[in-house]
Amino acid sequence: MIGNYLHLSDADFIDELYREWQKDPDSVDEHWKGYFQRLHNGQLDAALEGEGFTDPRENRNSGPVAGSGEPAILNPENPDTGARGLTSSGMKTPLPVSRDSQAYKQSRVNAMIWAYRDIGYLYAELNPLKGYITPDLWYMMFSIEGTYETLTLEEFGLSEEDLDTTFLTGRFMPEESLTLREIVERMRRIYCGTVGSEILHIQNKAVRNWLLKRLEGEKARSPWGPDEQVRFQRDLIRAEEFERFIHSNFIGQKRFSLEGGEVLIPALHYLFDHMLEYGVEETVLGMAHRGRLNVFVNAMGKPAKDIFARFVDNYVPHTYGGSGDVKYHLGFSTDYRPEGRDESLHIGLVANPSHLEAVNPVVEGKTRGVQRRRKDRHRKKVIPVLIHGDSAFSGQGVVAETLNLSQLKGYKTGGTIHIIVNNQIGFTTASRDSRSTFFATDIAKSISIPVFHANSDDPEGVVWAMDLALKFRQKFGQDVIVDIICYRRLGHNEADEPSFSHPKMYNQIKKHKTARELYADTLDDQGVWKLTDQKEYSKRYVGELKTHLNEAREGFEPSMDDAYQGAVWKDFRRTYSHEPVPTGVERKTLDKIAEVLVTLPDNFHVHPKLERFTKGRRKQYFEDDGIDWAFAESLAFGSLLLEGHSIRLSGEDCRRGTFSQRHAVWWDVESSEPKSYVPLRFMEDNQGWFSVYDSPLSEFAVLGFDYGYSLAMPNDLILWEGQFGDFVNGAQVIIDQFIAAAETKWFRSSGLVMLLPHGYEGQGPEHSSAFYERFLSLCADQNLQVVNATTPAQYFHVLRRQMKQDYRKPLIIMSPKSLLRSKDCASSVAELENGHFQTVIDDRADAKKVRRLILCSGKVYYDLIAQKEEREAEDTAIIRLEQPYPFPAERLSEVISSYSKAERFLWVQEETENRGAWQFVHYRQERFMPEGRRLEYVGRKASPSPATGSHKQHAQELADIMEAAFS
Fold first, then answer.
1. Transketolase-like pyrimidine-binding domain location, by residue (predicted)?
2. Pairing of strands 676-677, 451-455
3. How far apart are CA 74 and CA 431, in angstroms?
4. Per-residue model confidence as pLDDT tens digits over 753-762
5. N or C terminus of the chain with fewer C-beta within 10 Å?
6. How do beta strands 666-667 and 429-430 pair?
């Protein structure tokens, strides 16, 4: 457990070498000579950590051993050499042992110091329920002999006789030397008190040393002043009384009480106050429902009557044009200004569904967007804070996905402060059944960040951990965790009975004094704040709550935290419009963009295939007048950038494109160092910024991140691309809970664009469907825009429409695969110059001849038009539904009614009958079909699987569809 530091089994060998060095420094190997010299000079930590020199214990030829005439050998495989594997080659007699020497004793003290740093947290007083840690977890820790040191003097070859001997302390403590008694006391106070620190898993020496200095330095855990102590207690009183007040006045109503974890309020209050000292302008919060109402009122300053009005049901969500949500899911934002301060901190708590940790990436993405908006290039002005539950933190995969984003170029936010409200239970599930690790935080060690465990009964310790976490975040730009180990006084909700499954735990909780009561006695004993004065303060606060309750009962209507009230969203309207939006671009502007996209920079060596790619594009644009899908996309991006909009595109492999179609980033193949060029960044000086990022292999967290970004940046085009459309399955929680429903639940709009490759080309069940039907099933109240465009020009115009329209709705695009390189799927430059996105595209066939009318959506159009031409079926017209939602019933009816001679009306799709747009269109056909006419279905039969795995069968199915459509 102590890494490379000394163990008892090293002592004999090292002691003998040290005595040889004392007699003659040149008689030992240079590595050992430097080690002992540093030790002699008082440079304990340099000796141990080897700044600039190699640890001699890792050197196989470690110098002569007295009496042997041969070098000592480090042999970790030899079972006769003890834990460190130290032996001597050719030794004929045992070495004399001197365990009384100062060198040996110092080495043992060194080992003990590092053991405290390494595992002290395992012996810290972290649990407010004292001995209540389940026996099986203790078994996990200690059942295997030798897994952990016991932190006794005997473990390190020391005894009580050494307690008054003076030893070197190393460079982290302010004193150069202390008695062993003082060292032990210091180590126990720092590492085994009510705060435990996990830091030695951090491999970065500068980070680790900075933490050690703050933990052990002169001001480490200095006592708080009386004013601060009173402030902590006031927050505890308010937190506790708020929960009691609701419990007694709204009996049986759910609120997901903070009781048992009230210390979160002084911790957050302190954090908000001290963020201002570091120049922080805004913080974005995410948390689950437990304690949310308390945080609203007592940490963020929301009027209590606003909460009470929701309990007495004065809140009518349809007034705001949506369904609303339960009170403990809602978001809230405010400008927080501490007493006596002129500057304020904007705090935004993001709305969150019951999918607990799903809000994590949303918070990170929104933070990144706000940082961009505030020009916070160093990511010091805007800080994300995530408040977790212990079971969710260890159990939900999105936590690990989000942690993985923390240091990635396209997703970093400068470090997140994570706070775990560790109830030691999840709903009714014990810790032993919810994770395989001892601490809920162990999963976070994968990214080498510090973890501070704090006992909730010690508010001063909890706040101290928060203070250190803030300092660390601002210093290093990395995540940090404060794990507040507390308990849940009531059940999962206020109607739940927790003692059914945890009788022992809840029997102890009933007897346990609250943190407020314990701290009250402490402050009274210290003479800081008398109990009588504390009771008077509590009485006044309850009186305030009663006043707020009366106002709520008299009809006070709660405020709505509406995105459109903020400066960023105030110029947008809420509702969708079917009116076309002009999106054409002048030819000279398109020429300018195209020239940049096909010109290689000087002294830049691209891949030969990429060079052919750019030459092909030049020919497309300037000679053939046939723009393909990816080129149309780049032209749309370029036009928006020139108009001042910035663009963010992210997803797996999106810089090149899954199908090598995009090539947004070019790489110099001859450069010895990575050297790239992004053409769309070099059109003109005052253009918008173009960002494109290959994401990690994550859909849930990355889509959540980009959605969060879109909340903060409505004037930027934000796109997430699935590698294949079906991969969107991994992000379904974000789609269902946020993208589709946030506007009606939480009055939060988004202009996020999702690009989902969709189309049946015989690639099997997993690479065919983007679940077109699933998005359509989520459509209502004009919440989404779902598009299945069939031409590059249509794609060009719909991307531009997303920014040019005066409202924002998520845009879901079924993007192509095989059509990316189809010569039939091309558009002229003139089509980009003129017009707009068309929700329905007519065939322009001779209406007098048409007897068969085919409606379709997406790629199948190209199969149908090929059949029509091959069969010379002049009696057939093919109408394309390019945007099934918001449903263009009026336009569709107009087109269909123009074919008055039509006798058959078919809906043809390549998807199975239970997929695609068929069910959606079939349900709405009365709104556009001529009276008495019905659509017939032509397509694959219903199937549990999206597509066949046989290419031959795929081809036969497609042939059958074509035959049925034209027979």
1. 627-822
2. unpaired
3. 42
4. 999 999 999 9
5. C
6. unpaired
Judge whether residue 735 has pLDDT over 60. yes
User: In degrees, to the nearest 5, what angle opens at C-alpha 709 toward C-alphas 708 and 713?
Assistant: 125
How far, in Å, CA of 853 to CA of 842, rounded?
11
- CA atoms within 13 Å, Cβ hemisphere of 861: 24
Q: Residue 556 has what DSSP assignment?
A: P
Q: State the average pLDDT for the chain.
A: 87
Alpha-carbon distance of 434 to 139, in angstroms, equals 16
pLDDT in tens, 31-90: 677 777 776 665 544 544 444 334 444 443 333 333 333 333 222 223 333 323 333 333
Tell me which range, 5-9, 555-559, 634-638, is most confidently predicted by mean pLDDT.
Answer: 634-638
CA distance 617 to 625: 10
Q: Which amino acid is at 301?
A: G
- What integer pLDDT is reported at residue 38 of this predicted model? 72
Neighbours of 339 (CB within 10 A): 5
CA gap 728, 361 in Å, rounded: 16
Token pair recorded at residue 29: 């190997």
Q: Which fold has domain 238-557?
A: Rossmann fold (3.40.50)
Contact assessment for residue 783 and residue 738, using Cβ atoms and an 8 Å cutoff: no
> So what CATH class is 8-126+154-193?
mainly alpha
**Whole-angstrom distance, CA of residue 328 vs CA of residue 419:** 18
Residue 117 DSSP SS3: helix
**Could you tell me which residues are beta bridge partners of residue 349?**
285, 332
Contact 385, 283 (CB under 8 A): yes
Q: Residue 93: what pLDDT? A: 35
Cis check: omega of the bond before 886, within 30 degrees of 0? yes
Instruction: Classify 840-966 by CATH class.
Output: alpha beta
Domain boundaries, the chain: 8-126+154-193, 238-557, 587-833, 840-966
- Please enumerate in sequence order all residues whose Cβ is within 8 A of that of 883, keeping only pairs 6 or more positions apart, or say none: 785, 786, 787, 788, 798, 837, 839, 840
> How would residue 322 be classed by pLDDT, with cut points 50, 70 and 90?
low
Rounded-to-integer distance, Cα 617 and Cα 826, Å: 12
Query: Can you say whether the dihedral through the CA atoms of 952, 953, 958, 962 is positive or negative?
Result: positive
Q: Which of 642, 643, 590, 589 is nearest to 621 (CA)?
A: 590
Q: Which two tokens stand for residue 835?
A: 């017009």
β-bridge pairing 195-198 and 451-455? antiparallel
Q: Which of 110, 18, 115 is nearest to 72 (CA)?
A: 18
**Kind and range of the H or E element at 721?**
strand 717-721
471: part of which helix (H) or strand (E)?
Answer: helix 459-476
